[in-house]
C-alpha cells in the first residue's frame, strides 16, 4: 500500500575505493588514540590514588579538630547555662569539660 510519504528508491553509486594510505592513516590514528587514552587513564588513576591517600590522612586531623571544637563549644555552653540558671559550677568541672 503506497502512501504520499513513501519515497522512491534511490539508485546508489558504487562505493569508492579508499586509498591504502588513507586507510593506514585512519587505523594508525585510531590505535594511537586508544594507546594515548590508556596511558592518560593510568596517569589520572595514579594521581587519584595519591589524592585519596592524602585525604584519608587529612580526615584524621580534621576529625580530631572537629572533636576538640565540639568539646570547647560544650564547655562554653555549660558555663553559659550555669550562669543563666545561677547553678553552682561543680569542683570537677575542668575534668568533665577540659579547656
Automatic annotation (TrEMBL):
GO terms for molecular function: proton transmembrane transporter activity. It is found in: Mitochondrion inner membrane. The keyword Ion transport applies. Its main location: mitochondrion. Keywords: Acetylation, ATP synthesis, CF(0), Hydrogen ion transport, Ion transport, Membrane, Mitochondrion, Mitochondrion inner membrane, Transport. One of its GO terms (biological process) is proton motive force-driven ATP synthesis. Pfam families: ATP-synt_E. GO terms for cellular component: mitochondrial inner membrane; proton-transporting ATP synthase complex. PANTHER family: ATP SYNTHASE E CHAIN, MITOCHONDRIAL, ATP SYNTHASE SUBUNIT E, MITOCHONDRIAL. Component of the ATP synthase complex composed at least of ATP5F1A/subunit alpha, ATP5F1B/subunit beta, ATP5MC1/subunit c (homooctomer), MT-ATP6/subunit a, MT-ATP8/subunit 8, ATP5ME/subunit e, ATP5MF/subunit f, ATP5MG/subunit g, ATP5MK/subunit k, ATP5MJ/subunit j, ATP5F1C/subunit gamma, ATP5F1D/subunit delta, ATP5F1E/subunit epsilon, ATP5PF/subunit F6, ATP5PB/subunit b, ATP5PD/subunit d, ATP5PO/subunit OSCP. F-type ATPases have 2 components, CF(1) - the catalytic core - and CF(0) - the membrane proton channel. CF(1) and CF(0) have multiple subunits. Subunit e, of the mitochondrial membrane ATP synthase complex (F(1)F(0) ATP synthase or Complex V) that produces ATP from ADP in the presence of a proton gradient across the membrane which is generated by electron transport complexes of the respiratory chain. ATP synthase complex consist of a soluble F(1) head domain - the catalytic core - and a membrane F(1) domain - the membrane proton channel. These two domains are linked by a central stalk rotating inside the F(1) region and a stationary peripheral stalk. Belongs to the ATPase e subunit family. This is ATP synthase F(0) complex subunit e, mitochondrial.
Amino acid at each position: 500500500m503506497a502512501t504520499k510519504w513513501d519515497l522512491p528508491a534511490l539508485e546508489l553509486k558504487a562505493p569508492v575505493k579508499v586509498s591504502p594510505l588513507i586507510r593506514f592513516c585512519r587505523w594508525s590514528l585510531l590505535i594511537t588514540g586508544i594507546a594515548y587514552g590508556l596511558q592518560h587513564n593510568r596517569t589520572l588513576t595514579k594521581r587519584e590514588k595519591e589524592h585519596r591517600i592524602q585525604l584519608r590522612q587529612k580526615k584524621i586531623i580534621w576529625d580530631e579538630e572537629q572533636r576538640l571544637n565540639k568539646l570547647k563549644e560544650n564547655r562554653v555552653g555549660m558555663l553559659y547555662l550555669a550562669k543563666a540558671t545561677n547553678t553552682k559550677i561543680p569542683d570537677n568541672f575542668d575534668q568533665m569539660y577540659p579547656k
